[in-house]
Amino acid sequence: MSTTTEPKHRLPQFISPRSTTEQPLSYLTAERGIRSWLFTLDHKRIGVMYLIGILTSFLMGGVMALLVRTELLTPGPTIMDADTYNHMFTLHGAIMTFLFIIPSIPAALGNFVLPLMIGAKDVAFPRMNLASLYLWVFGAVFLVAAMGLNGLDTGWTFYTPYSTTTNSSVISATMGVFILGFSSIFTGINFIATVHTMRPKGMTWFRMPLFLWSLYATAIIQVLATPVLGITLMLLIAERVAGIGIFDPALGGDPVLYQHFFWFYSHPAVYIMILPAMGIISELISTFSRTRIFGYRFLCYSSVAIALLGFLVWGHHMFTSESAMAAVIFSALTFSVSIPSGIKIFNWLATLYKGSISLTTPMCFALSFIVLFAFGGLTGLFLGALATDVHLHDTYFVVAHFHYVMMGGTLMAFIGGLFYWWPKMFGKMYNEFWGRMSCLGIFVGFNWTFFPQFLLGTKGMARRYYNYKPEFQGLHVVSTLGAFVLGVGLVICAAVLVHSLFRGRKAPPNPWGVATMEWETTSPPPVHNFEDTPKVTDPYDLEGFVLNETSGNYERRPAGITSSQKPSEVKA
Amino acid sequence: MNTLNQYLIFAESTGSVWLPSQSSTVAGEVDGVFSLILWISMIFFIGIVGALVWFVVRYRRQPGVPAQREIHHSTVLEIAWSVIPFMLLIVIFVAGFGTFMGMAAEVDDAYEIHVVGKKWVWSFQYPNGYIDDALHIPVDQPIKLTMSSDDVIHSVFIPAFRVKRDVIPGRYTTLAFEATQTGTFDLFCAEYCGTKHSDMYSDVVVHPSGEFEAWLEKASNFLETMSPADAGKALYKRRGCAQCHSVDGSQMVGPSFYKLFGQQAVLDTGEAISVDGNYIRESILEPQAKARAGYRKVMPTYQGQLKDEEIAAIIEYIKTLKE
Known about the structure:
The complex is a heterodimer of chains A (572) and B (323).
Chain A: H1 34-38, H2 43-71, H3 82-117, H4 126-148, H5 162-165, H6 170-197, H7 210-242, H8 255-289, H9 296-309, H10 324-352, H11 361-384, H12 386-392, H13 396-426, H14 432-458, H15 473-503, E1 545-548, E2 553-556, H16 567-570
Antiparallel strand pairs in A: 1-2
Helix pairs in contact in A: 2-3, 2-4, 2-15, 3-4, 3-6, 3-7, 3-8, 3-13, 4-6, 6-7, 7-8, 7-9, 8-9, 8-10, 8-11, 8-13, 9-10, 10-11, 11-13, 11-14, 13-14, 14-15
Chain B: H1 2-8, H2 27-58, H3 75-104, E1 111-118, E2 121-125, E3 131-132, E4 135-138, E5 142-149, E6 154-158, E7 163-167, E8 173-178, E9 183-189, E10 202-207, H4 211-220, H5 222-225, H6 228-238, E11 264-266, E12 272-274, H7 277-285, H8 308-320
Parallel strand pairs in B: 1-5, 4-10
Antiparallel strand pairs in B: 1-2, 2-3, 5-8, 6-7, 6-9, 9-10, 11-12
């Protein structure tokens, strides 16, 4: 980060360059040198390194997305041949799923925030935390190495028998995903142990911030579902290398079995992606409405319900390949997951009601999330219903649907969370105007890109198509133009954040007036997170804070003035 | 609302803003389910966004005015917005389920056509043994496709009929439908299958009643009625050669047929051969035995799928491609 601007020589740890201000050294500056980062056990530094890795992956996947969209401007060849296109959309999907979305919120933001939120010094197993980062790096190397070897043209789902017969680098890529799975399991174990054992006295389960609930529910899925993916990919590798017949019918295997195995992980994985996003949204909506979250307990239960029900619906990815009976059962179970998701949306809306809403950058992203996630969720009903899914399965309708949920949902929440915790992570405020403009750009560009894809899908445009019938071209051109607008929005977003690191105003400890514990410490926090052990309070007691106009910091309301006072009385 | 519904969803012959034409018996019913879900989700979406925008405007932060909501949970409300959507979901499930079971039901007097998918071509075998690359069917007649794949998973998708079913190696899957309109429709491969997945396309030709049988008879006798070279040309198009072998010298997945006959070629073993009738025949029946250098070994075998006269016709056709 800013290490280049600091003096080259290494300062002894106990001498603070800012000793005059009596502020403790932040975790960013306490130790210097590359080794202090590579061997750190500090959850905050690990979170920051995860963030760098994840954003690099996002950039890679994003460039590929733009290339794919550019290719689709015309039927037939535009800028690449069919094989290159197949490699490109496969790697876009694999990188975005395994390297970006799955670890984005838990491993980057979660790692940074979770211990701070419970007032702890670190996660339960700091070494395991660092190991998970290294596993992520190794996994990423294997996955990306496939690109340099023979590429990867299976689609991110590695469906057999295509994946066992193609000559692209399936083994390298699946090894990568296998290793990434362990990274995810390590993070999950760590979070479960941390939440169980390190909560401070007084923070009961139902006094935990909702982001913790969602990380906890996510961790359960990570630990229970990811091993299934690992085993599946091992079987796939065994079949490819040794010809052991498991999935390939020519060897006595069953290709649909692979789909069951794969989705037994990959559907719960959808909730690994969306649950932490929902947790962030609960925090943002409450904070920027300056009022207690509505229906806290229902929100907790709904996170757990989503985590558990998410295990029972994998078969809805196979309505056109499994038996009619299985399809009926999975369709019914699928609808059950939409209830807890609906509860969340309605509770967020109720939180806005009679709030005091300010449209800060994180809030803009949170509101965009609600709109896009609602849209994504409702379009899921067309896919959960059997008769309509038969028509829409494997068309652009599905592509549009999951981009609304994954990108309109998880990505919006991730960026919103990043803007929300950015002052805490790096101690810098960013330009609010351009932050909001980036949200507007992303929101407009996103809808511009993906709404036309619903129409393409209902009209019968199948997905993963290099070539298409001329009547689809109009909508493809619209979608591609939107993708570039979306790209511009994301570039603005990156520029705002990078700019803040160099030119940003110094962040106060609690710029948003939040009652969760991470805002009790300095921004950025010291190495051990808190100078004094923080007091456990109600995480949604937003009325207990008042803005100090001169410092921009929210401070605890002095005793004697209660939050139940009428607005007129507080005016002074 | 009815006119709007018609514009959005129901437009039998031409298709609507959303959906293609309704050309099978189930299409109307499927679109009915689509319409039901569309209306329910539009109402919810407008409600959610409307409330969101209204609250953001109405309760925007004003200096000195804190949040005023005193209620922080309401079991009654929360149960209401769990139970009401739950009931609507049951309605949607039942609608989707009923139509689906109708689609999956077997009909006794269905006309059966065997479908084989292989990279990257469909072949349709009619009861008399004739194989064509297009799906020809009579109108108003229940059809049953019995499908299998020679290599990877494919999927038969006919948007105008609202049907789709995966075609899986090592087993038969079936797909039943009944066309209600004559004309030509699209059949796509919906399951990703490699390089030319998006070109694994076929026409569905729905014949007016009484004309299908005449077409089948005429088409079946092509070996007798056409010259060998012409029959070879028809086979070249119908049986999937055209997917990978050009006739104008352009580079595709496999070697071009242009000026192929009599050519000197190099195998991947380094051996030089001369392309003659025997080599072409062997390459059709055992494509991997003597693969040409510089090409991937992806061609599926036609062993048992092409008759000797047909292979001879293809060789005759290749011989004609000299200029």
